[in-house]
Amino acid sequence: MNLPNTLTLGRIFLVPLLVVVLLTKFEAELVFGVPKEVLGAAIFGLAALTDWLDGYLARRRNEITQFGQMMDPLADKLLITAALVSLVQMGRAETWMVAIILGRELAVTVLRSLAHGRGLPMPASRLGKLKMALQVVAVLLLILGSRVWLFDVLGQLALWLVLVTAVTSAVRYYRRFRILAEPNVADFESARDRRARDDRASVGRGAAAG
């Protein structure tokens, strides 16, 4: 268990804490002397920071592990899912927008898993990384939007940008998967045809010998 993987697990442990802070109705407006929206934004911001920091440290210290490669995207999706669903419950985000964004996450995850199973390289795209950055900005602004009107406006705009980049990047992932998979399909069909020809030839030789 190295430092990057510890940060990844720490991000996962912050997820339920974020949900509790955002969705619990406290008797007082302050939690530990801090408005709950500010505390929630701080927790989310800290978790998002570990997302960048664990990857940076893993590359810098040459501590990239299979565990980290598996858990890091899972931690990201848990964090974003928890934050967006909480915002829906708070009335800060539209349900249909969040459904599309999270549906995209599931679809791309399945697509990349299929590609990995076939040995096809499908790393995160630049547009996908931009979407992640926009999601962090949108969530932070929307959490604080209940206290600052301007943050709410900017947060709604950022969420629309997230929606557009999510759909666009999903289409690009699908096209890339098709391009990468087609040669494998062609190779499979060629091998199948060769086997069929060999089988027919073997039958012909057997009949001639008989």
Describe the structure.
The chain is mainly alpha-helical. It is 82% helix and 2% strand. The protein has 6 helices and 2 strands, in the order αββααααα. The protein has helices spanning 3-23, 36-60, 66-89, 95-117, 126-144, 149-209; strands at residues 30-31, 34-35. Strands 1-2 form a two-stranded antiparallel sheet. A hairpin with a 2-residue loop joins strand 1 (30-31) and strand 2 (34-35). Helix 3 runs parallel beside helix 5. The radius of gyration is 24 Å and the shape is globular. Residues 185-189 and 205-210 have low confidence and may be disordered.
How many E strands? 2
Q: For the terminal residues, how far apart are their CA atoms?
A: 67 Å
Q: Radius of gyration in whole Å, from Cα? A: 24 Å
Shape: globular
Query: What pattern of helices and strands is seen along the backbone?
Result: HEEHHHHH
**Overall pLDDT metric:** 83
Low-confidence stretches: 185-189, 205-210
With strands numbered from the N-terminus, the spatial order across the biggest sheet is 1-2
Contiguous helical run count: 6
Features:
single chain; 210 residues; mainly alpha; two-stranded antiparallel sheet; 2 strands; 2% strand; disordered C terminus
